[in-house]
Inverse folding.
């Protein structure tokens, strides 16, 4: 798998406005904030299942109601469609909890 070209990455990232991109390092990041630890942990549990199904695992960090996520595709040497797909699913999972 090869990394996304910068123009392609920029176009796809425009559809993920809550994510911050560092195209120089080929990573995207987002902080998710929940009402409490149980919601944050539930989000992580759901996304762990998604990660296994996609065979794509994030770097993430949790403190109480916050989950910080960093995505990159090491095999591709940067940002790939798998990162974009995972980010979209995470945004949907977050939106369900925030509603």
């Amino acid at each position: 798998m090869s990394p996304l070209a910068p123009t392609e990455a920029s176009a796809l990232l425009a559809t993920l406005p809550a994510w911050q991109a560092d195209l120089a390092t080929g990573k995207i990041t987002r902080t998710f904030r929940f009402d409490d630890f149980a919601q944050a942990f539930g989000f992580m549990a759901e996304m762990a299942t998604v990660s296994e199904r996609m065979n794509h695992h994030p770097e993430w960090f949790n403190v109480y109601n916050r989950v910080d996520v960093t995505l990159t595709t090491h095999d591709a040497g940067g940002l790939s469609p798998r990162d974009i797909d995972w980010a979209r699913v995470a945004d949907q999972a977050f939106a369900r909890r925030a509603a």
